[in-house]
Amino acid sequence: MTKVLVLHNVSLVRSALAALLRSEGPFEVTSAGWRSAESLRPDVTVVDLDCPGTTAVLADHGRAADRQVLASPSPVLVLASTGAPGSLHRAFRAEARGYVDKDGSPGRLVRAVRRVAAGERFIDASLASAFMEADPVPLSPRELSVLARAAEGDSIVEIARALHLASGTVRNYMAAATRKTGARNLIDAIRISRREGWV
Question: Quick one: 55 exposed, middle or buried, by C-beta within 10 A (0-12, 13-18, 19+)?
Answer without folding.
Answer: buried
